Amino acid sequence: MRDQRAEKLAAILVQYSTKVQPGDVCVIQSTTTAEPLVQAVYEEVLRAGGLPIMQLSTEGAGAAFYELASDVQLDWIPPTATWTAENADVRIAIMADANSRDLSQADPSKQQRASRARKPLMDASMKRSAAGEYRWSLTLFPTHAYASEAGMSLARYEDFFYAACLVGDDDPVTAWQRQSDEVKRLTEWIQGKEEVHITAPGTDIKLNVAGRTFIPCFGSHNMPDGEFFTGPVEDSVEGEVAFSFPATYAGREVGGVRFRFEGGKIVDATAEQGEEFLHEVLDTDEGARRLGELGIGTNYGITTGTKEILLDEKIGGTIHMAIGMSYPESGGVNDSAVHWDMVCDLRQGGSITVDGVELQRDGKFTV
């Protein structure tokens, strides 16, 4: 019997997050591990009158690719991927790792080569999304791998994850819209300001956001959600930041990351775990050493780090910064094949000050 919570999440993704309409071409991307949620999404798309296309891979495909692929294969972009980025009306992507260490032995140079080759897909998707031509949503399907990383049993992780998605609400399809007032209020407050100053243990950093647009997030793209973000002025970032939680990129984990910025560029980067891989990513291209995003978490229903950025970046009382590509709708112009979010926890002695006015203290908003 299928978990009814997966069916409710599918309804949120199709009816609310992506608002599928009759005739919309809807691409559903995942692995075979997520079959229960994929099937529920497929059925919801059909009920909405959409035209579904399934793009499913096996769980071990990624590891096999980086082990066996030649340079030609690393550079080749499947025509189906190009078509999706340039033509699909909707994309619903479902992460479903059965083994969180599946890519731990992958060659970083191969990963970065493939990432650079696929940058046109990222460019096309972001451009069309910013123009309102392409609706997308990203979520995950609870697995033993995610539960293990979060230090929970699968049953407890399922309860935690689905609660964070608000599937237990009496009307889950409208739940995120009804809870959007606070994130909209904070976004309106910060819009038009210029300098953001963030402090925490090991962190003292300033970013200019003049002329940039802050985007409120309440379920339209990520599920679960809860943040507001922008793209900081690319050459404005000054100072140091120490990230609180382990961060994963391309299946590789780093921990204890610290960056020092001068003139907007990372001039020093260290990590207690995975430092060599961190430098591999930073050397992907010029834009990988600059920030493409500053986000402020607002979801106080997520209280603990899980080693999954989809959830961790939403934690109320944290901020996250992404090195690499900016979202065009924010006004950011940083260009890179990389977009890697990392989280800084402000709940124990941190603050956010905006144009001299305190926005947050110890993880609680003060405006």
How is this fold's topology laid out?
Blueprint (H helix, E strand, L loop, with lengths): L3 H14 L7 E7 L3 H13 L3 E7 L3 H8 L2 H5 L3 H9 L2 E6 L12 H10 L1 H12 L4 E6 L3 H6 L4 H11 L7 H7 L2 H10 L4 E6 L2 E6 L6 E3 L9 E4 L7 E5 L4 E3 L2 E3 L3 E5 L2 E6 L4 H8 L8 E7 L11 H4 L5 E7 L14 E7 L5 E4 L2 E5 L2 E2 L2
Parallel strand pairs: 1-2, 1-3, 3-4
Antiparallel strand pairs: 5-6, 5-17, 6-9, 7-8, 8-14, 9-12, 10-11, 12-13, 14-15, 15-16, 17-18, 18-19
Helix pairs in contact: 1-2, 5-7
Using brief descriptors, characterize the structure shown.
367 residues; alpha+beta; Thermophilic metalloprotease-like; 8-stranded antiparallel β-sheet; 5-stranded antiparallel β-sheet; 32% helix; 27% strand
Query: What does the radius of gyration come to?
Result: 20 Å
- Domain module tally: 2
Question: What is the arithmetic mean of pLDDT?
Answer: 96
Spatially, the strands of the biggest sheet line up as: 13-12-9-6-5-17-18-19
Structural class: alpha+beta
| Number of contiguous helices | 13
Low-confidence stretches: none
* Strand segment tally: 19
